[in-house]
Amino acid sequence: MSRSLTGGRPGARSRGWLGALPLLAFFALVFGVPAAALAAGAFTAQGRPSLDNLALSLRGGYLTALLGSVKLSAVVALAGAVLGTFLAHAVVTSRFRLLREAVLTASGVLANFGGVPLAFFWIATLGNSGVVSGLVGLPSGSLYTFWGLAVVYLYFSIPLMVLAMAPALDGLRPQWREAAANNGATAWHYWRYVGLPVLAPAMLGGVVLLFGSAFSAYATANAMVGTVVPLVTLKIAAALTGDVLIGYENIALALSLDMIVVAGLVMAIYLPLQRRTSRWLH
Amino acid sequence: MAALTGLEPVAAAPARAPRARVWRGAVFLVAGLYFLVPLGASLWYTLHSPAAGVSFAPYAELLTAEGFARSLLLSLGLAAATIAVVLLLALPAMLAARLFAPRLRPVLEVLCTLPLVVPPITFVAGLATSLRTGTEVLAPTPFWATIIAVQDPGFPVVLVLAYVVLVLPFVYRSLDAGLRTMDVRTLVEAARNLGASWPYVLFRVVVPNLRSALASASFLTLALVLGEYTVASLLGYEPFAVWIVTVSGSRGQLSVAVSILSLLIIWLLLLAVSTVFGRERKS
User: Fold this and answer.
1) pLDDT, tens digit, for every residue of B135-192?
2) What's the ipTM?
3) Interface contact flag, A178 B10, Cβ < 8 Å
4) A20/chain B closest Cα distance in angstroms
5) Model's pTM, two decimal places?
6) Of A24, A83, A233, which is closest to B121 when you measure between CB atoms?
7) How many CA atoms lie within 13 A of A101 on its CB side?
8) Based on CB atoms within 10 Å of each CB, which residue in A9, A82, A146, B117 is the most buried?
9) Helix, strand, coil % (nearest 5) of chain B?
10) Residues A105, A162: contact at Cβ < 8 Å?
11) Residue B10, pLDDT score
12) CA distance A230 to chain B (A)
């Protein structure tokens, strides 16, 4: 690439930093300051530096909530990944163009449909006075449980997985299948040795994406289960809004730090994979 | 991708085809049930009640409910402000990194993916703490008025700031994908050599080439801001998503009607964006 006019001129580099300066300054103020406040608060108890908050946030009810969130997100991520991949495969190989377009558009809408409206949808359907729960004789309160929450979360997780997998599945060449069949491979052989290895990075990336979105979801759970199912986001909100003793805000900050560590570990798997999958999209 | 479906019967043994079709049909049936039943049930729930029979009353009530217009307008205003701020911050920075300072690119990439690692609720925990401390610390200085003005319930600027951070990863990705499809350096150098000013280059050369990327970034921002509940409710403001909950306490049918409306809004937004895409592809 030529560096003649813009790249090599003296002062060009400083102009580059000038263009980025507003973003950098904004980021330092709006993201950096809260992050620093969070870290400082998490390590402060009764005005002194201490590890008490963190220790407390990993004990008893708080630990149960954190593990509950991790478990729910893992269940949703795995189930959503498997079901979403099946649906994406059915869509990509479908002969009907119209059906294909319709499912992909619907996925775009539903993947962005979450929060409180999603909870109300399911309460109207399978809640205690829901339309369908009366028809199938569902026991009262079954929606407001761990598994009920998982079923609701899949409503945005499966479409998200379809959107993540459709380009990768489109990249599977029919010639690979023909070549495998010519060499005597069965359908199982084809998927085991050709299809899945090619799709693996995209699938793992999708699993992480689903885990992250389920892990940080708060509005849906809050509107649906309140505090029936222990989740870390609900505990943080309870500690923040002060319906517990004063001085517990720092527990909220410590719990937030725990969440960020979990999310950070998961993202550390995702980002390198994302770069690898993008190779298959071209 | 017509080639994929067209070639398949050649590759596959004739006996396999019906089985694949049955399999696909089953997948579509199950998915259709799972995704359409809640939709239909919610619609029925809003239209039918044992006492009144079938009526459209909840929808009529919705449009006249106290706070409906105010909260929706607040959400739309916040979304517009967020889109303007995030694009004005991100686009110059990304262009500058591409044109003048390649070493800036990894820095931007890391900064713009950091918010993905931070769940919104933890971000709001840090934000609430720093706002509280900030108000105390800045009380004797002239900045006190600023930090109070930022939290004005009429138009909470602090929400715009928070939303800009939350959408930054998505906006960065769409713009990055858009910038990849064109040779920015050559375009800008050609325009500059012909005597175009910098604002002219930005708005008449770069932006038109980025139209679809800007459209998808705006759609994602709009969808996120309209549905955002966590940050707004924990900071104590009442845009659309929070108002839905306030209203639902008393009237169940009304809240489901609002939910259907918000699904419709997202669908219309996506439709609008995809028409922009489609028109571009044809021309």
Assistant:
1) 888 777 777 777 777 777 778 899 999 999 999 988 998 898 888 888 888 988 999 8
2) 0.81
3) yes
4) 4
5) 0.84
6) A233
7) 6
8) B117
9) 80, 0, 15
10) no
11) 36
12) 16
